[in-house]
Amino acid sequence: MASRTPQPKGEAAARARVSSRAVQKAADRAAAPRIEVRKTYKLYIGGAFPRTESGRSYLVSAKDGTPLANACRGSRKDLRDAVRAARQAFPGWAARSAMNRGQILYRVAELMEGRRDQFVEEVAAAEGLRPDRARPLVDRAIDRWVWYAGWADKIAQVLGSSNPVAASYFNFTIPEPTGVVGIVAPETSSLLGLVSRLAPPLVAGNSVVLITSEKRPLPAVTLSEVLATSDVPGGVVNVITGLKNELVPVLAAHVDVDALDTWGVPDALRTDVDLAAAESVKRIARRPRGVADARFDWTDDRAAERPEWIAAFLEMKTVWHPIGV
Question: 42-322 has which CATH code?
Answer without folding.
Answer: 3.40.605.10
